[in-house]
Design goal:
The structure holds 2 protein chains of 2 kinds. Helix content of chain A is about 45%, strand content about 10%. Chain A has a 6-stranded parallel sheet with strand order 1-3-2-4-7-8, sandwiched between helices. Chain A is built from 16 helices and 8 strands. By secondary structure, chain B is mostly helical. Chain B is built from 19 helices and no strands. Chain B has helices spanning about 5-20, 25-45, 50-70, 75-110, 130-145, 155-160, 165, 175-180, 190-220, 230-260, 280-285, 285-300, 310-325, 330-350, 370-390, 395-405, 410-420, 420-435, 450-470. In chain B, helix 9 (about 190-220) runs antiparallel to helix 10 and helix 14 runs antiparallel to helix 15. The mean pLDDT of chain B is about 90. The chains are: A alpha/beta, B mainly alpha. The interface between A and B is medium-sized, with 18 and 23 residues.
Chain lengths: ~350, ~475
């Protein structure tokens, strides 16, 4: 019996030590890129953002009962780059213009395709019930072209359809909230933690390829590190975004939606949140190994029927002027500093 | 609590240490400890159904005693029938009530009668099919004088509720397990080593093989019209592997766990996919259930004795009931029916007792005839699994129709190759084949390896568990 127990313990000790080390060094509340790469990152949001880290999320969402009771100045629809909870552009816009902003929550209807969703709302009576002056449409750069891949101008999502979708989603959220079970161990995180940390010494994408880690030519974040972490799709989807024909098609679609909204007395403001890779591209030490993004070069040059905000210009200018943490170091999203820079542009475009 | 969970990883060693060090090898103390541990294990699933388990246990314990006291055969039979009615009544109520009501309402609406009958909104108590059958086997064995009446409630309750087999088998027999519970258990090193090996192998089959297959199977079965014929064939094959990995993996963990406590459970799977015909398959698949039905249903009905029509009738009854045991859905009944159709020709041609040995015994490879037999049998069972997995009989036929009518489908499979799990699958099939003459694949063959290689292999399995773990897939047989 003793021999058996000793053998089992000796067998388990290395596993236990490795699990313990991983549990201590892998933190669950890091940014998405840190979690996906399994890198141990020292980045403190309080240090980077100070009071901005503690602002409240005050956005009025479209599942609120007051949505049809007043006319709103801004109706916002976009993805996580827009609606990034307290850090997001929508929240900062709501802080600057309290009571004037209503946001279409991204997990209803077409999920992460705000372009389809907006087209569907335009085609229906939705804006007869939800009265607005301006629609602000946003998409992140890497997904903008895939999102128009199967353009169908006849989608229609009425106010009732949206309300039904909201009800179903709320039921789903309630059921998910009831599930407090801890996921079983073992998980792949244990193995990927070590393998990825080893592989990042030899390849920019680690083991699982979802996060790039490349060196920058200076310190652009409030960390010791000069690394840039960015999502694989920022690079892989360049074959879509660097295709001028596809960018022209995008512009046509947004023009179409703008004209349709103008017929309803609504102005369309459109902007694209640049990929982190694009904003910091010129500062990559090994940029010769990477394709230069051309999306904004193309889009910025096209004729538009909508109000367009040049987010790429403002954010790159901030980085070049030495502003740190324009994007979150351990996350793919832009930071509160980016939101604070973009919001005045939205407000001035709507006056 | 799942076998592949943190909770179980703490639960098992604690029970193990208390069992061997605190109870000091006293049988009574060991049994009380195991019973408390078993009830705790079950309560972690749902504490409300613990009362049902205790009630069912007490019922059969009392019935057994009453049968023992019966002065006449008629009274004894009455107690037996009462036990069967109550046990099957509970099983039928929780498991089959909604099925019968829904089927009746559908059938009546076909003839223009619309009824709105009350249906249950209650989850199925975990393991009810298994512990009910434990209890039934006990009372039936008393009736048939195969076993003496058990007068120790703790021993009996432990027989019904022993935690490794409580929620998904193997379905134990009182004649096999009760005597072990009455004997003092002594720690056996070799047995405990094999127990850990079997647990590790079972976890590998479940977490690495079955759960990975499940992700693809769900994709193909949940979105059937979107896939080509080849993909759907692959989906059916993957389900065949998934259900085997899942269920035999669970059985291995259960049997291995019992070995740690010096208890021997019945072998439940004997490498069924290496069977040369359907009859051999059913001697090797879910052995505890198929032998239960053989001993308590098939033989009392007359078995293979009597005329041809009686044999045919009995075979259909057994397989349909077996299908129905798996779940309250016409798909399971259809699956049972299909297996009856497969089995019948062998029975009528008196070939159902062929292949009692192990395929290619003592050899590395099967001969052509054996290989052909294996492939045909595997194909037939895989076809049957389509019905087992489908949401409805209509869905199953859609799936089959899609296989024959739709071309293409290799694209989806490429991601499967990318993940690398294919290499583990090859390893899995290879080790199962090499170990087919043992009770489980790793039982003896690792003893021949050098120590370094053996431990490296253990660590490889552990790493694979971590690598492929993370997405919780319920053991398939828990729904029964």
């Amino acid at each position: 019996m003793k021999k058996y127990l000793i053998k089992i313990i000796l067998f388990l000790i290395p596993i236990g030590v490795l699990i313990g080390f991983e549990l201590v060094n892998y933190t669950y509340d890091q940014g998405d890129l840190a979690r996906m790469s399994y890198l141990n990152i020292d980045y403190n949001y309080n240090t980077a953002f100070g009071e901005e880290n503690n602002v409240k999320h005050i956005v009025i969402e479209n599942d609120s009962s007051s949505i049809t009771k007043q006319k709103w100045k801004y109706f916002t629809i976009g993805d996580s780059f827009f609606q990034q909870y307290r850090f997001g552009i929508v929240n900062h816009l709501s802080m600057k213009c309290p009571g004037s902003v209503v946001n279409f929550k991204r997990n209803y209807l077409r999920g992460d395709n705000p372009i389809y969703t907006l087209q569907g709302l335009i085609n229906s009576d939705y804006f007869d019930s939800v009265r607005v002056d301006y629609v602000i449409l946003e998409s992140v750069e890497r997904l903008i072209i895939p999102r128009i891949e199967y353009d169908n101008p006849t989608y229609s999502y009425s106010y009732e359809t949206v309300q039904e979708a909201i009800k179903k989603e709320k039921i789903k959220e309630m059921k998910e909230a009831e599930n407090t079970d801890i996921p079983p161990y073992p998980t792949d995180r244990f193995v990927k933690f070590y393998l990825n940390n080893i592989f990042y010494h030899y390849t920019p994408t680690g083991l699982n390829g979802s996060v790039y880690k490349e060196e920058l030519d200076g310190h652009y974040f409030t960390t010791e590190s000069k690394d840039l972490l960015f999502y694989w799709r920022d690079v892989d989807y360049l074959n879509y975004n660097n295709d001028i024909e596809k960018v022209k098609l995008l512009n046509q679609i947004i023009n179409r939606m703008s004209i349709q909204l103008q017929e309803k007395g609504i102005q369309l403001i459109f902007f694209v949140c640049p990929d982190k890779y694009d904003v910091y591209y010129d500062h990559l030490v090994n940029r010769k190994d990477y394709v230069r993004p051309k999306f904004f070069n193309y889009l910025n040059s096209l004729e538009k029927e909508y109000t367009y905000i040049r987010t790429d210009e403002i954010l790159k200018e901030m980085v070049n002027n030495g502003q740190k943490d324009v994007y979150l170091f351990d996350d793919t999203h832009s930071s509160p500093w980016a939101s604070k820079a973009i919001v005045p542009l939205i407000i001035s475009a709507s006056q | 609590m799942l076998f592949n969970s943190v909770d179980y990883a703490f639960f098992l060693p604690i029970v193990f240490i208390l069992y061997w060090f605190v109870t000091k090898k006293r049988v009574k103390a060991q049994n009380i400890l195991l019973l408390i541990a078993s009830y705790y294990f079950y309560a972690c699933w749902d504490w409300r159904f613990l009362f049902l388990l205790i009630f069912s246990t007490t019922l059969d314990f009392v019935m057994g005693i009453q049968m023992g006291k019966s002065k006449t055969h008629r009274i004894k039979k009455t107690w037996l029938l009462l036990s069967i009615i109550i046990n099957l009544g509970f099983l039928g109520f929780f498991k089959y009530y909604n099925f019968f009501v829904d089927s009746a309402m559908k059938g009546l609406s076909e003839v223009g009668i619309d009824l709105n009958l009350w249906t249950l909104s209650i989850i199925l108590p975990v393991g009810i099919s298994f512990y009910t059958f434990h209890g039934l086997s006990y009372v039936i064995d008393i009736y048939n004088n195969r076993i003496k009446v058990e007068r120790n409630i703790v021993d009996y309750a432990l027989f019904v509720s022993f935690f490794p087999l409580l929620v998904a088998g193997p379905i134990e027999r009182a004649t096999h397990l009760l005597p072990q519970l009455k004997r003092r258990r002594v720690f056996n090193y070799a047995n405990a080593v094999n127990g850990m090996r079997q647990i590790l192998w079972g976890l590998f089959k479940k977490v690495v093989i079955a759960d990975t297959c499940a992700q693809y199977v769900d994709m193909f079965f949940n979105n059937t019209p979107e896939y080509g014929g080849l993909s759907l064939i692959i989906g059916a094959v993957l389900f065949a592997i998934q259900i085997y990995g899942d269920f035999s993996g669970y059985s291995d963990i259960a049997i291995g766990t019992a070995r740690l406590f010096g208890i021997d459970l019945l072998q439940n799977f004997n490498f069924p996919y290496f069977s040369r015909n359907i009859a051999e398959f059913w001697r090797r698949w879910h052995i505890s259930l198929s032998t239960w039905f053989r001993d308590y249903l098939y033989i009392p009905l007359g078995g293979s004795r009597g005329g041809t029509w009686m044999k045919v009738r009995n075979i259909f009854i057994i397989f349909i009931v077996s299908g129905f045991w798996h779940g309250a859905n016409w798909t399971f009944i259809t699956w049972g029916l299909l297996n009856a159709i497969y089995f019948l020709p062998l029975l009528l041609a008196k070939k159902n007792r062929n292949h009692l040995d192990t395929v290619a015994e003592g050899k590395l490879f099967p001969n052509i005839k054996e290989l052909l037999g294996i492939l045909i049998t595997f194909s037939l069972t895989t076809f049957g699994w389509i019905f087992f997995r489908a949401e409805s009989v209509t869905h199953a036929f859609q799936y089959i129709h899609q296989i024959y009518s739709s071309t293409g489908g290799m694209e989806e499979f490429q991601e499967f190759y990318k993940w690398g799990v294919t290499y583990f699958m090859v390893l899995f099939i290879g080790l199962e084949w090499i170990g087919r003459e043992q009770t489980f694949a790793l039982e003896k063959q690792l003893d021949k390896w050098p120590k370094f290689l053996r431990y490296a292999f253990y660590y490889l399995l552990v790493l694979a568990l971590f690598w492929y773990g993370g997405k919780e897939q319920q053991f398939i047989y828990f729904q029964f």
